[in-house]
Design brief:
- With about 150 residues, this protein is α/β, with parallel strands linked by helices.
- Helix content is about 20%, strand content about 40%.
- It is built from four helices and six strands; from the N terminus they run αβααββαβββ.
- The protein has a five-stranded mixed barrel with strand order 2-3-4-6-5.
- A hairpin with a 4-residue loop joins strand 2 and strand 3.
- The longest helix has 18 residues, at about 1-20.
- The model is unreliable at about 1-25 (pLDDT under 50).
C-alpha cells in the first residue's frame, strides 16, 4: 500500500512539473518594463559601493527595466559582457563613476563591429556591490532580454 501511494505521489509531482506553472494555467504576458534613466540611477552622491544609495534605487533590484545608453565593450567587441553608460559621463575627463555605468550581460555572445553610440536594452536589473581585490567593480547589472540600436536621424 505504501509503495502504491509513493508511485501515485511521484506521478502527480511529475505531471505538475511537466504541465508548467499552476498545473497548466496559461502564464500572464510579461509586464511592460519600467523605464529607468541614468538620471534616476545617479540621483545621489556616489561614495563607494552601495553607501548612501537611496532606497528607491535599491528597490529596483529584481525589476524588469528598459534603459538607454552607450554600449561599450569590456574586453573585446565580441562576448556576453559589456558596459552601458550614460553618454555625458563618457565625456568627462575622469570617466564615468561606478553608478554611471551598468554591467550588461547577454545570454549569448554578441558581436559588435564598432562602438554603438546608443542602444535601448530590456532586462532584469540587479543592485549588488561586487568587490574584487578590494575594489568595487560594479553595483548595477542588467541581464538582457533584448537590445535595439538607436537609429540616427
Amino acid at each position: 500500500m505504501m509503495a502504491a501511494r509513493l508511485v501515485l505521489l511521484l506521478a502527480l509531482v511529475g505531471c505538475a512539473q511537466s504541465a508548467g506553472p499552476a498545473g497548466g494555467d496559461v502564464q500572464p504576458a510579461k509586464q511592460p518594463p519600467q523605464l529607468l534613466s541614468f538620471k534616476e540611477l545617479t540621483s545621489w552622491a556616489y561614495v563607494e559601493g552601495l553607501e548612501g544609495m537611496p532606497e528607491s534605487v535599491k528597490a529596483l533590484s529584481g525589476k524588469r527595466v528598459k534603459m538607454t545608453g552607450a554600449l561599450l565593450p569590456i574586453d573585446d567587441f565580441e562576448g556576453c559582457d559589456f558596459w552601458l553608460a550614460d553618454p555625458p559621463a563618457l565625456e568627462s575627463h575622469r570617466g564615468p563613476k561606478d553608478h554611471q555605468m551598468v554591467h550588461v550581460v547577454f545570454a549569448q555572445p554578441v558581436r559588435m563591429d564598432s562602438y554603438i553610440d546608443g542602444v535601448t536594452v530590456v532586462g532584469t536589473f540587479r543592485v549588488k556591490s561586487v568587490v574584487v581585490d578590494g575594489y568595487v567593480i560594479e553595483i548595477f547589472r542588467l541581464s538582457v532580454e533584448s537590445m535595439e540600436p538607436i537609429k540616427s536621424r
